[in-house]
Specification:
transmembrane helix; rod-shaped; three-stranded antiparallel beta sheet; 4 helices; alpha+beta
């Protein structure tokens, strides 16, 4: 009788359920982290794209009027356009690069999104990037009035 009792104790599967539950809970926690932080990363990508577009449009508000009046050619005022775009990027807390060439502003924005759940497993932030380009357009179908009008 002692042999069967000892054999029954040695062949039991006690404790195996605990290991399965621990692995499943860890997997569910990781999945929840991917869902939450993945959603935040997508929102960060949209925010970076919005910021890049806003900064490019802000740069295009700075037309070189002296050049326009003398040559009838559209061109951005480089330093003012650069400063306006960079100010827009900095205002939202992102980093970026602005390139002004002629009548065009190209903006690249980098947005760093801190993770909420995945930081517990060592992933503290997710980085997203976006770019936008804006260029000057004439506001009328006939840019210059032959009768002496215009700027």
């Amino acid at each position: 009788m002692t042999c069967t009792t000892r054999r029954h104790v040695l062949s039991g599967d006690e404790g195996q359920v605990t290991a399965v539950v621990v692995v499943m809970v860890a997997g569910l926690f990781l999945f929840a982290g991917l869902v939450v932080d993945g959603g935040l990363a997508l929102a960060g990508k949209v925010r970076a794209a919005d910021t890049a577009q806003e900064a490019a449009r802000a740069a295009c508000q700075h037309v070189d009027l002296d050049h326009l009046r003398t040559t009838h050619q559209l061109r951005l005022d480089g330093p003012a356009a650069q400063a306006a775009a960079q100010a827009r990027i900095t205002a939202v807390g992102d980093t970026g690069r602005v390139r002004i060439t002629g009548d065009q502003a190209q903006v690249n924005v980098t947005h760093v999104q801190k993770t909420q759940v995945l930081s517990l497993v060592g992933l503290s932030s997710l980085t997203t990037r976006a770019s936008a380009t804006a260029h000057l357009e004439h506001g009328a179908t006939r840019p210059w009035d032959d009768q002496g009008g215009g700027l």
